[in-house]
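Severity: low
Component: inverse-folding endpoint
Summary: output formatting inconsistent between runs
Steps to reproduce: submit the following structure tokens with default settings.
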């Protein structure tokens, strides 16, 4: 939602906790069980409905960040909850794909370890600073979401030729590969930021 590591104690929050940006973040979290339920139903129609719910939830990620920045609705809750809502959505999709044998487990496990590891680290770092999502983190989430939509969509049910459906699926795997690289690199970068903050021994100074 917010670029860079932001100070928490130095600047008291102006925006109310109950605002449209945070409501969209909570909506994204609430859409996750709906997406999982639809994904587990048999048939292409349920699969397509699951993709629609996923896309709506992914769109709220774009919208909440934009609204928070442009309307001055940035809160510490949003900085923490926004990445958690993203991870709940993307990690459930990665796990479902691996369960269905459509994505290698090692890819899902690597991404789960990075995402949960950074979330735990964020909570530990709260004593010093709120580590908001970085630019790289946002790019990573976008790549993951685009790749996931490509892998989740039953392309053949969209009246595409076999060749076109195959092309879309291959393109999705390429995007997921790019997402995997950015996921690992940005994870390491967050660790570097956390080490620097810890060494400074105080609040993030921006
Ligand atoms: O890479 P993270 O953990 O900062 O997550 C990034 C967010 O999902 C961007 O909205």
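Observed output (run 2 of 3):
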């Amino acid at each position: 939602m917010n670029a860079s590591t932001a100070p928490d104690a130095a600047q008291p929050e102006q925006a109310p906790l109950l605002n449209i940006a945070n409501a969209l973040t909570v909506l994204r979290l609430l859409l996750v069980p709906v997406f999982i339920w639809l994904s587990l139903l048999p048939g292409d129609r349920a699969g397509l409905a699951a993709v629609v719910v996923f896309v709506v939830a992914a769109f709220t990620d774009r919208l909440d960040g934009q609204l928070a920045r442009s309307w001055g609705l940035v809160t510490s809750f949003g900085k923490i909850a926004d990445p958690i809502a993203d991870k709940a959505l993307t990690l459930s999709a990665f796990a479902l794909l691996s369960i269905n044998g459509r994505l290698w487990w090692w890819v899902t496990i690597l991404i789960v370890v990075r995402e949960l590891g950074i979330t735990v680290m964020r909570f530990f770092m709260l004593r010093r600073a709120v580590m908001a999502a970085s630019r790289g983190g946002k790019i990573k989430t976008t790549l993951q979401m685009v790749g996931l939509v490509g892998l989740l969509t039953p392309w053949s049910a969209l009246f595409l030729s076999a060749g076109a459906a195959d092309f879309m699926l291959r393109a999705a795997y390429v995007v997921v590969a790019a997402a995997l690289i950015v996921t690992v690199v940005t994870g390491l970068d967050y660790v570097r930021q956390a080490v620097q903050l810890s060494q400074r021994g105080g609040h993030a100074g921006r």
